[in-house]
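User: Batch of two.

Assistant: Item 1 of 2:
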Amino acid sequence: MTGGGKDLKNQAKSNSYLYKILNITKNFIKKILVEKTSITSDRCTQNTASKLSLASCRGAILIEFAICMPILIILLFYINDLVKIKRYYSQTEFVGQQIANMIQNISQKRTDKRITKTDLQYALASSYLTIYPATGAFSSNDGKLFGNMPMVYIFYVKGEANGTASCIWCRRLHTNTRPNPSATYYENYWNSSESVVNKNGTTPADIYSTLKVNSGDYKIIIETMIWGAGFYKGLGNISLTRKQSLKTYMIEPRFTGNYSCLHSVVIFTPKPGLFSETAPQ
């Protein structure tokens, strides 16, 4: 399987990455303070020669420190957002890998191994539990619990002659109302403003940059994303901005269109008998 999202990293590595960033930031701030203190000390020496009080020098240090502190706080919030967005990308890619694994194995003990619409609905609902615990992915009368929801596109691509390719069918799924553990299944629906995969492409690279498919072969593309940030309302019918929905302070991930973000793509060759040129029913 290959993916178009961010590399999946374990938590220990993420913590190490955060520690390195914080350490660099701390050393940077320390260097600034040392330089400021050195300059202030020189000023103090001159002021002593001029018979100025030591209290004024200490006051200058406090003022300069007060200027540095907001910069440090802003950097910490910025780093926090970067780490959170990186984690989101890792999670959406992991969701895609989970869906691919379920598709490859869910029907293997059945007589009819064809993947059904219900299989895909339950694969989406269960895989996104890593991002939306319990029934958090499902809406209710008072809106989305997290102010956003999961969405998945599934593309069935065939390799043609002369290096061309075509998307035979495409399906979009997203969660429906609580507490039903399933997803809404849209037939023949594709929105270019919310997808990073081009269903209308004529070559593998046109469809998706990392897609490779030989003539006569088939590939499944799973595109996972978080949709609705800054659009859906949270509990209590309270409007949420993008940052509020994603719980970031200063920055937000790149959006495709107005509401879809944090896209990850997983591409794999399906096992024999799972799919055909007719979409799952």
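Item 2 of 2:
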Amino acid sequence: MSYGTVTRFASKKALREAVEEVGADKIMVKDTSFHNPLAHVPVPLSSLVGTSAVIVGPDVNLDRRWYANVKTNKAGKIIIT
């Protein structure tokens, strides 16, 4: 399953920096599936921890230049890989 960010990030590095700055709870993502009735409802990036979901950017429809995963490190901090 893939997700796109509500705010456009030019690179995975920019997304990573935003997560460090404002937190994963403040960055919203939307499901890209047309078959999911809740796809248009944004959810916090932090809700993707522990899933196999992939974040696509900078634009899920027009420019899939980078892909990212959401994980936690050993200290329990949410990171973008």
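The first strand starts at residue 2 and ends at 5.
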